[in-house]
Amino acid sequence: MEHRSVLSRRELLTRGIAGAAGLAAFGATVSATDEMSGHAHDPHLAGTVGAVPVDGFDPMAFLEHFDRGRVSRLPSGQTLREYDIVAIDKEIEVAPGVFYPAWTYNGHVPGPTIRAAEGDRIRVRFANGGSHAHTIHFHGVHAANMDGVFEPVRSGEEFVYEFDAEPMGLHLYHCHAVPLKKHIAKGLYGTFIVDPATPRPPAREMVMVLNGFDTNFDGENEVYAANTVAFAYQRRPIRIVKGELQRVYMTNLTEFDPVNSMHLHGNFFQLYRTGTSLVPHEFTDTVMLCQGERHILEFTFQHTGRFMFHAHQSEFAELGWMGLFDVVEPVA
Amino acid sequence: MTQRSRAIWPWAMLPVVLLAAMAVVFGQSGLVQFMRRGVPPVEELTFERVTLKPDVITVGIVNGGPDPVTVAQVLVDDAFWAFSIEPGSKIPRLGRATIEIPYPWVPNEPHEIMVLTSTGLTFAHEIPVATETPSADLRFFAVFALIGLYVGVIPVAIGLLWYTMLRRLDRRWVDFALALTIGLLVFLGVDALHEALETAAQVAGAFQGTLVVAVGALGALLVLQMAAGGSLKRGGVEGRRMVALLVALGIGLHNLGEGLAIGAAYSLGEAALGAFLIVGFMLHNTTEGLGIVAPIAHDEPRIRTLAGLGLLAGGPTILGAWVGGLAYSPLYATFFLAVGAGAMAQVVMALYRVLGREAEGSAWTPLNAGAVLAGMLVMYATGLLVA
């Protein structure tokens, strides 16, 4: 599969035409008619005014994009997945009209969602095009010199990370250069999914990285979001088909605040902590995530209509980490 | 135009023309970028007037920084909120904008408004106690006139009644009253200067609040000195009457500033004007009446003159309360307070002259010096009531 560094709406439309099964609903979700027109002037709903253009980074496209890398087979028969990741300094729009001088993997925050099956060989060629030394520290089981801690990659240099994808579960990666807090807050992080050898049951799958941005650099976040853009999924609700199994890979990479959370309206979800078990740990509608903590959430909606999902810390919700599921009847 | 002036003009214009040329070269050459070193623009937004109507908060902001500022989002109490901004979200240097936020604010509770600019900087303003901003209706004018009446007009009028006592005292004690007045005015002048500098801190940086104080105070002093100089020099009844007029004017300007502050604080919910505070202001301001009549105690002024002087001193409180309640601006408040301070300084100078003339050269008898101190102490003591 060709590696894509920047997601764009055009790319997604192309993929939609290509007919990728998992993206069948995508074209409809992206259409402008779906925007919650006029909500900005509803005094009973917090939110930003205006819209962030999606030509740079489209949260709706990011939501369902999984990068499985360039696939080949090693002589041993093991599957090899190769990735190119470039660190780039880039100004990103985190709320309509609000720009943040980010450090990114591949030009967007969060970085690409890397997905492999348990036991696959992962090879990441990391080039540092940024102004500071960076690394990629993957969570998982690997050799000490592949940990992305003691081998800072200086500006203009490269490094190749190679390891087997294990254990199965939902993991993350982030820069581990010092000062650590700064490198994470600036946007150097992403999701790393290791699928079990026997795949999970088919479902519509989404990835959400909970993050925040300290736009005035006072050590507190001004903007919160799932996938960077404040209120992105409130403005353009995520379409869900009633009765269809939904699976959300949710990772918390919010800096400065020790915890974040997820609350689902009008429904409950099965919770797989760190995604390391195929048996759910809990059936709930609210879960707390520490920095770096991540869970797989599974749910099926029984009712149609608009349902919120957001941090149950009301402050985070009203500062941007708030979205809507628009549940529709299945097309006959 | 004479031969001589024709010869002068080109030389006067030469530096100006050169300066303009230099400015053009500087602007065109990219020197600005070179000197900036890629440092992001400095943004400075200052909140001016914040008004509260049912479910609507209106915020006036001014850009006092060196560069244009773009307002990207508005937060109320740490929540992104809907808003509209007039005339536009990009505010030029020294430009103003009005932001309207439909927000269900809660009476008697604090709220925080925060503006998030395109570069991610934040500027916040706290509403200490949310109360509905009065509209400019009959009730508003009546209530604020009443406040001004109680705080300014009535106390001064009551103070004027000391006239009957003063006219029966011999000259030594009238001098004492004059010296006491100097004490009162020094206190009020310092108070006005302090208030002016304090308010100047709220003025957007580019408008240079502190220098507005300097220009306002010195300007008032010079204008009054120029206008009243002749009468003061001649002395006698005319001179003393002029001094009384100046005292009344100085106190009036001070009370205008006081009215502005009270009106603004009251309408913005920043001050609960309790009965105690009103009584305090009355006591504090009553002494001002004494100051006005002291210079003319032995001149048998007409009742009409006294009433006019009282109105000049007390009336501006009402005017100030109205303006403060409806259109408070830190810039204008700073200016008026500074003008008040300058006027007070001029009056102190005039009074000293009167005292010197009365005392034939030795103004600072122990009695008079004590009176100045006593005047300040009286103001200090009554000031405790309004703290």
> How many strands, which pairing sense, and closed or not: the largest β-sheet of chain B?
5 strands, antiparallel
**Computed CA radius of gyration of chain A, to the nearest angstrom:** 19 Å
Strand arrangement, major sheet of chain A: 11-10-13-18-15-16
Q: Strand percentage of chain A, roughly? A: 35-45%
Give the overall average pLDDT of chain A: 88
How large is the radius of gyration of chain B?
Answer: 26 Å
Q: Can you describe this structure?
A:
The complex is a heterodimer of chains A (332) and B (387). Chain A has 332 residues and is mainly beta. Helices cover 11% and strands 38% of the residues of chain A. In chain A, strands 11-10-13-18-15-16 form a 6-stranded mixed sheet, with no helix packed on it. In chain A, strands 1, 2, 3, 5 and 7 form a 5-stranded mixed sheet that branches. In chain A, strands 12-20-19-14-17 form a 5-stranded mixed sheet. In chain A, a hairpin with an 8-residue loop joins β15 (269-273) and β16. The relative contact order of chain A is 0.14. By secondary structure, chain B is an alpha+beta fold. Helix content of chain B is 61%, strand content 13%. Chain B is built from 11 helices and 9 strands. Chain A binds chain B through residues 40-44, 46-49, 95-100, 213, 215-216, 218, 222, 230-231, 315, 318-320, and chain B through 55, 70, 72-75, 78-84, 89, 102-104, 116-122.
List the helices and strands and how they pair.
The complex is a heterodimer of chains A (332) and B (387).
Chain A: H1 9-18, H2 26-30, H3 59-63, E1 70-73, E2 79-95, E3 98-105, E4 114-117, E5 121-128, E6 137-138, E7 158-164, E8 169-174, H4 180-185, E9 189-195, E10 204-213, E11 223-226, H5 232-235, E12 238-241, E13 246-252, E14 259-264, E15 269-273, E16 282-284, E17 286-290, E18 294-299, E19 305-310, H6 314-318, E20 322-328
Parallel strand pairs in A: 2-5, 4-9, 10-13, 12-20
Antiparallel strand pairs in A: 1-2, 2-3, 5-7, 6-8, 8-9, 10-11, 13-18, 14-17, 14-19, 15-16, 15-18, 19-20
Chain B: H1 3-28, H2 31-36, E1 45-53, E2 56-63, E3 69-76, E4 80-81, E5 84-86, E6 90-91, E7 96-102, E8 111-117, E9 122-127, H3 138-160, H4 163-166, H5 171-200, H6 209-234, H7 236-267, H8 275-293, H9 303-327, H10 330-358, H11 366-383
Antiparallel strand pairs in B: 1-2, 2-7, 3-4, 3-6, 3-8, 5-7, 8-9
Helix pairs in contact in B: 3-8, 3-9, 5-6, 5-7, 5-8, 5-10, 5-11, 6-7, 6-10, 7-8, 7-9, 7-10, 8-9, 8-11
